[in-house]
Description:
- Chain A has helices at residues 8-13, 37-41, 54-85, 92-111, 123-155, 160-182, 207-229, 231-241, 245-248, 253-278, 286-302, 306-326, 331-346; strands spanning 187-188, 197-200, 203-206, 281-282.
- By secondary structure, chain A is mainly alpha-helical.
- In chain A, the strands form two sheets. Chain A has a two-stranded antiparallel sheet with strand order 1-4. A two-stranded antiparallel sheet of chain A has the order 2-3.
- In chain A, a hairpin with a 2-residue loop joins β2 and β3.
- The longest helix of chain A is centred in the middle third of the chain and has 33 residues, at 123-155.
- Chain B is α/β, with parallel strands linked by helices.
- Chain B has two domains: 30-151 and 294-372, Rossmann fold, CATH 3.40.50.2300; 154-284, Rossmann fold (3-Layer(aba) Sandwich).
- Chain B has helices spanning 2-21, 45-64, 88-101, 113-125, 154-169, 183-200, 219-227, 239-251, 269-273, 293-306, 312-331, 338-351; strands spanning 31-38, 68-70, 73-83, 106-108, 130-132, 147-149, 174-179, 205-211, 232-235, 258-260, 281-284, 354-357, 360-364, 370-371, 374-379, 385-391.
- In chain B, α3 (88-101) runs parallel beside α4 (113-125).
- Chain C is 68% helix and 1% strand.
- Chain C has helices at 5-22, 28-53, 61-80, 96-119, 128-146, 161-170, 175-196, 202-208, 210-215, 220-246, 256-269, 274-290, 298-312, 323-326, and strands spanning 157-158, 248-249.
- Chain C is mainly α.
- The two termini of chain C are 16 Å apart.
- Chain C is built from 14 helices and two strands, in the order αααααβαααααβαααα.
- Chains in contact: A-B, A-C, B-C.
- Chains A and C meet through α1, α5, α6, α11 and α13 of A and α5, α9, α11 and α13 of C.
Amino acid sequence: MAGTSGSPPALFFFKRTTTLWPSPNRPTGHCPKGRAVQPARQGPIAQPQGKVSPVEFFQHILNALQFGSFYALIALGYTLVYGVLRLINFAHGDIFMVGAYIAYFVAVLLLGGEGMHGLGLSPALTLAITVPVTMILTSLVGVTLERTMYRPLRRKGADRLYVVITALMAGLMLENGNLALLGASRKSFPELMEKVVWTFGGVSVTNLKVVVIVAAIVVFVLLEFIVTKTKIGMAMRGISYDKFAIPLMGIPLDTIIVVTFILGSSMAGLAGILYAMSYPILEPYMGALIGWKAFIAAVVGGIGDIRGAIVGGFLLGFIEIGVVAVFPSTLRDLFAFSVLLGILWLKPTGLFGVAQTTKI
Amino acid sequence: MKRMTIKVLLVVLAMALGAFALMGCGQDSNVIKIGFNLELTGDIPKVGEASKFAAEMLKEDINSKGGLEVGGKKYKLEFVYQDNEAKADSAVNAALKLITQDSVVAIVGPNSSKQAIPAGGVCNDNQTPMVSPWSTNPDTTKDRPWVFRAAFLDPFQGPVAANFAAKQFGAKTAAVLFDIANDYSKGLAEIFKTEWEKKAGAGTVVAFESHGTKDQDFSAQLTKIVAAKPDFIFVPDNYNQVALIIKQAHDLGYKGPFMGSDAWGSAELMTLCGKDCIGQFFSTHYAAAGAQGATKEFIDRYNTKYKYVPDDVAALTWDATRLVLQAIQEAGKVEKDIKAERKLVRDALANIKEFAGITGTMKFHGTGDPDKCAVVVQISPEGKFEFKESVCPQ
Amino acid sequence: MQKHTFTISLFAGIFLLTVLAQFGVINQYLVSVIMLMGVNIILSTSLNLVNGYMGEFSCGHGGFMCVGAYVSSVVTVLCFSKNHILGAPLLPPSLALLAFPLALAAGAAVAAVAGLVVAIPSFKTRGDYLAIITLAANYIVISAIDNMEIIGGPRGFMGMNATVNGMEGLLDIPWMLLWVLSGTVFTVWLLRRFVSSTLGKGVPAIAQDEIAAEIMSVDTNRMKLIAFMLSSGLAGLAGGLFAHILGYVNPHSFDIMKSTEVMVMVYLGGMGSLSGATLSAILFTVLLEVLRPLEIWKWVVIPLLLILLMQFRPEGIMGNKELSDLFPKLKKYYSFK
């Protein structure tokens, strides 16, 4: 047998289920769709001073939607890999960072700048080329990681813990390797999209913010479609149910896993380029904190469930912006993590998750 | 086989330990070692780089003439650089390493008050003289006889910024956005607020928002600030955050002016900020454009060697290091015992009453802080820092 | 007599080190490295209890260290330094020697309580979720301290030097070295006693099969609590020692990077092996110093080493064996089990 993971005797006592999507025979304890989202959308979590005007309020909501989109996109990657492999890919936040840097180099190459002559293409064309190229190259990075580091461990049937540690170390290597290779200077991302600021009634929105939010929603719909309606998606779901039966059904396990990583990493790459456009200063450690927070968001949403990742990501965005809007900004992390912990306490498997019983 | 592997590993471990313990013995007595505690990586790497470049240029100058002449004998200079990663705890570690492992005579740096204040405490406790080129927060040298600086203080800079802004923008109300995790930023923000409200009346600082060092999204704070409709926004932040803040403020529809402080003065500000920063003002230590005499000579040489116009950190490091070197020379001799030598250097530093730096004349009064003039510059459309006005202490 | 060789040589070693440090034979840098080694040993052995012996995945060890560091620092600073909270010090410097261990104990106790608070939710959740809870707890501790202006907030807290100076004022020997070494010996001794006791055997039992352990009369909830509290209390002790070595604490020194470092040490040494955790802590500290010339590449090489380790020898240096299993002849030199 190719090795075991978890504790087999426990299987006899507890039904082991995991969800990558809503399934018909799920226990009914989960939140009906949409309910988890609404309380967050009401606005900041607490308003003791009540000094937030309606205009500010809508502005904050828009900010939160945009900020939450990044968390959502990254959380999607975590969820996909976890659902299929039961592996927390701690390197995911750093893949996001690598995506942002890849976008930077591609854009500079095409656009010309930073002392390089480049190809001198127009910003719009550069954008059009950079986005898919970034996504492809980032997914290459993710797949390389998988093949060189995770697959040999899987073959040996190593304990899941070792893979997690490998992931953690791979993330560290990516961050520090970037710092070592490219130096400590921040990189400034060139402006690819002409920024248009629309102001209505005191609320300002840039076209970039809208693009980010739309992108997150489109990605979600796309992924939901892939996972529920295509054959590959069905295979992915199958693997998350029972990893050992799937090869018996003639489905190539490795290929599906590679596809999962491609999907997850390209989402991270997309998040990377969108983030680089919104906050155009790149530094090697940018992925670390966001990665950890997106991971927590994914877990709070219910890891293994795509809807959970989206909801968790936006929820975290709302909490963070909401806290800063009302309290001094240093309380942000404190509140955000406390609220997330509180949600986990009340619903230990996350908002959309279902009980599982394996130890790592 | 497994047991062999483990045993081999253990033997290797023991050998490594042994080799390590024997490391770091022996000192060359014809060399004077000066330590540099710099922000080479982290949030503000350009600052550390500028310091290092200036120091290297000075070292080459002196060593090419045979070394530093102290008491009739020439000693070669050796500069040891430690990276404090722009973090307070790493600054403490770096200082300890320079003091205990590298046995330096004196330390130059850290630059940013956030690192300089804890590092200064360590240097003071370990009786090693320290000169910070760029730190402006009073706490760096307060009650610390072993710590000195080459820059003016924030209680001087705050009013300069406030007065200039009131005059230039005709402003009645102000808003502040500062980094609460950075001693420099927080200290200067508070000094500014007190000064402004003294002049314009209580409550005229209509928004006083803070953020964390690693923050990249300031939309929540800026939304609040913009809604309060200030006449200008004071941003005493490091250059990497300034770029993001100004861009995001513009995204939120803010069209008014900003006022900056000396942490803006890095050569990398315009690379990161671009056209959003053009036309903004900030207070700083010197203006490269329009300099004369020794200052111009320094700027030209630095520009030729490193291909960019030196910022205020480079110029201040040049001055700070020269302060240390002058102190070593005035001490008269180089003691073998490093502790005795440090005491000599420290006493000599405390005896320097006036120093002609390329960033201006410095007058010391025994507190370790110089009286110096501050300069307000404006960012030109070409991205250069142009002299606007100079403010000197009475 | 032969049975006590280990104990005797241990104390002789400590004495020798102190004497060497006192007379400057070992330079101050080496002394500080030895002290850091000691702190790392305490950290890795205490985390080994939860991550190694108990098989959980706690990612937040830095948070407990932070709690211990701050509590003991505040206590000593209030007692012995001029500070901006109370003004003048409360006690004369001559009492520093007595008060210091009490301050350390206070730090450890509060850290243990923090561990309790984190452990209780962990009953309901398992594995990956424990990782989240400990991670979030780490961040919450750091954020909470960031917001306490009275102890300096994100800018850090200083003043512990007065205590160390007070101790040296009494008798000029390197006290911190002594304290660190004593703390290390105490920790390793305590953990060894715990794990080989009947009570402590419940911990690996939970790791192997929780349900079977429950059936065999191990109160799993209580065991988890005890293990967590012990682990975080010792981390608090390490934190207090660390704070006094540096003379400065800053909450961001104890963030996820610190927790990761401690995890690296545990997994490098081998889960479930006390001597492994000790050895890897020593090796790791030495590696950090030896690789210093590499600067930032150091942090590429170390994760790479661990990845290779995971590929080719995932159980770490020692696996779950102790030194006495490898060199059985050593057994006759010590009297404990």
